Amino acid sequence: MASIYGPSTDVAEFHEVLKSSKRIMALCGAGLSAASGLGTFRGAGGMWRNHKATSLATPEAFERDPGLVWLFYSYRRHKALQAKPNPGHYALTELSKKMLEDFITLTQNVDGLSQRANHPREQLKLLHGSLFDIKCFACDRIEQNNYDDPFHPLLAIDSTEDDRLAAAENTAQARAAYEDPNVDTRTINPDDLPHCPKCKKGLLRPGVVWFGEALPEDTIAEVGAWIEKDKIDLILVIGTTATVWPAAGYVEEARNKGAKVAVINMDGLEGELGAASDLTDDDFLFQGDAAKILPEILKPIIGGLEKRES
Ligand code: APR
């Protein structure tokens, strides 16, 4: 029975909806990888050193201080390579293998953990690119699946990283104190950072989508075609504040195609659920760790996960 007070939290009720669903979509965010030890963007995990993670994810930040932005992404590449996929990633992989083209995962995550959990690639849409793609800031060159750690010797994640950052902060403070615009406050001299082997001019940059940039055109077209194809029965909104557009807009698109919404998040209705905050009594809310909840709520289709967990 659906509650008259808001979204249901009843797993058995969800299992019935799941079993009768023919087409399902998942929209994932950083919370899916939280149990793997990777930080989120907003809330408690949203700071890197004394920088807001979101303030470093812009082309303007890269233009201002490419070394600082690269160190942030070098750190994230390093952490992602050390991390392991968790049972939440594996549960989505199994759902994808069972439902084939009737299930699609849209992920905002750039950490490569869904890929490493063997999520079928055709059914996994990377809305925000990948930490392991390297693009040129000037031309169209893109290199995929570069797992070098560090990507460049100057970007090694060790104790010298802190020295470089401290030096940059000191010079920034000095510039502010003396109001001298000629003091170079950049963390690493851009001439020393890796440049594009094709155009020889542009700096290399991480192949992620920054604020103000367009999402990958072909990915958006593929997702659009999947949505248009038929009715959608259910959207799983997993570990995301659903506040970053256009990704967050997929909740409404799924609703418009008939989908019930199931939110899986550490936060409940009192938290930030963005585009998924208007849950009705036809919807579901499972509050807690996605790594624990997904294997449980998807069990009728995927069975037990025990032997697949890492
Ligand atoms: N299980 C489930 N949810 C969790 C967990 C967990 N173990 N830990 C945290 N969460 C939830 C938080 O409550 C929050 O709602 O995950 C969400 C993380 O939200 P954000 O940090 O905003 O991450 P995300 O929604 O992925 O950000 C979207 O913003 O900066 C950009 O491009 C970046 O892809 C990113 C986008």
From TrEMBL:
<feature type="binding site">
    <location>
        <position position="136"/>
    </location>
    <ligand>
        <name>Zn(2+)</name>
    </ligand>
</feature>
<dbReference type="GO" id="GO:0005634">
    <property type="term" value="C:nucleus"/>
</dbReference>
<keyword id="KW-0479">Metal-binding</keyword>
<dbReference type="GO" id="GO:0036055">
    <property type="term" value="F:protein-succinyllysine desuccinylase activity"/>
</dbReference>
<dbReference type="InterPro" id="IPR050134">
    <property type="entry name" value="NAD-dep_sirtuin_deacylases"/>
</dbReference>
<dbReference type="InterPro" id="IPR026590">
    <property type="entry name" value="Ssirtuin_cat_dom"/>
</dbReference>
<dbReference type="InterPro" id="IPR029035">
    <property type="entry name" value="DHS-like_NAD/FAD-binding_dom"/>
</dbReference>
<dbReference type="InterPro" id="IPR003000">
    <property type="entry name" value="Sirtuin"/>
</dbReference>
<dbReference type="InterPro" id="IPR026591">
    <property type="entry name" value="Sirtuin_cat_small_dom_sf"/>
</dbReference>
<feature type="active site" description="Proton acceptor">
    <location>
        <position position="128"/>
    </location>
</feature>
<comment type="similarity">
    <text>Belongs to the sirtuin family. Class I subfamily.</text>
</comment>
<keyword id="KW-0862">Zinc</keyword>
<dbReference type="Pfam" id="PF02146">
    <property type="entry name" value="SIR2"/>
</dbReference>
<dbReference type="InterPro" id="IPR027546">
    <property type="entry name" value="Sirtuin_class_III"/>
</dbReference>
<feature type="binding site">
    <location>
        <position position="196"/>
    </location>
    <ligand>
        <name>Zn(2+)</name>
    </ligand>
</feature>
<feature type="binding site">
    <location>
        <position position="139"/>
    </location>
    <ligand>
        <name>Zn(2+)</name>
    </ligand>
</feature>
<dbReference type="GO" id="GO:0070403">
    <property type="term" value="F:NAD+ binding"/>
</dbReference>
<keyword id="KW-0520">NAD</keyword>
<feature type="binding site">
    <location>
        <position position="199"/>
    </location>
    <ligand>
        <name>Zn(2+)</name>
    </ligand>
</feature>
<keyword id="KW-0808">Transferase</keyword>
<protein>
    <submittedName>
        <fullName>DHS-like NAD/FAD-binding domain-containing protein</fullName>
    </submittedName>
</protein>
<dbReference type="GO" id="GO:0017136">
    <property type="term" value="F:histone deacetylase activity, NAD-dependent"/>
</dbReference>
<feature type="domain" description="Deacetylase sirtuin-type">
    <location>
        <begin position="4"/>
        <end position="305"/>
    </location>
</feature>
<dbReference type="GO" id="GO:0046872">
    <property type="term" value="F:metal ion binding"/>
</dbReference>
<dbReference type="GO" id="GO:0036054">
    <property type="term" value="F:protein-malonyllysine demalonylase activity"/>
</dbReference>
